[in-house]
């Protein structure tokens, strides 16, 4: 009997301990644990009635503070910043903008802006109210900026890792046979931003540093180069002639066998879509070069709606597959040997060995294995004897050297 009573007492004690342990984790603490997954940087572009878009950046810090930045693209003095503390309760993130609450629905690697009724937008623009969590930016590569008013004048930025530092090199296309800009220095990475001391002789004599910052662009397709203080912007002009400056927006634009700009053949479609605001993505289902080819195409555009390139997975609609096909839409993207969408047959023939040439319904397709690429030229640009019936092959002598290509495509993970 005593043993039986002892067992009952032990069981009651264990039950009480179990209840106590359950009560040790209040609901508020569970919300805090969930919030830990949400810390980071989120970006997106809201629709705008009188501008090209509202670029939004929201930083959530570990200490429950936030920084909310909005930039009305194309407008002067239209950048606004709010800071404070954020809260998360029942998957709803709340911040304050100019004393008014803003609410977001938290999801996996994204935040969705809620309306005054605490509900998400369900219309055709609903995707534009999403902010995407940002991943670590890879700075290594070659970037260029284009100034249309100067006529094909480009400034080039090369970023080369050197241990924990980066070698930063600026150069420019010649103006009157002289290079207009030239600077090289060492960059340090701090909080995902590169900073470089660009102090001139006068500043060095005063033992003063002038910092130039290089940060990922809003869409992660390139970088923005700037100084923190407005008065220091002139320091970026001392390395250029004719009123030029190192400051500006630079797009990563190199094409190689396994990469284009910021992306490689190891990226999935979903990974690319995660880095770019929805306002710059357009999905289409289209036919390819051959009759049986059908692709889910994801068109990637610049902030000013210029089509840059189009990505496709191997299987229609499978965004978790690696990139299979890249259609290069903009001549701004080019290989190390200068081949772009504006190149001619002669340019390609001079730069790379052509692996094979085969006809499609309206084009001939040149395959270049060295860069995993194909180039199409319209049959209408060829001589009448373009097809050799005896050898059942394209007569290369019938291809005019000045024939421009219609399509420039990279083939990955085929």
UniProtKB/TrEMBL annotation:
<protein>
    <submittedName>
        <fullName>Copper resistance protein NlpE</fullName>
    </submittedName>
</protein>
<keyword id="KW-0732">Signal</keyword>
<dbReference type="InterPro" id="IPR007298">
    <property type="entry name" value="Cu-R_lipoprotein_NlpE"/>
</dbReference>
<feature type="signal peptide">
    <location>
        <begin position="1"/>
        <end position="22"/>
    </location>
</feature>
<dbReference type="Pfam" id="PF04170">
    <property type="entry name" value="NlpE"/>
</dbReference>
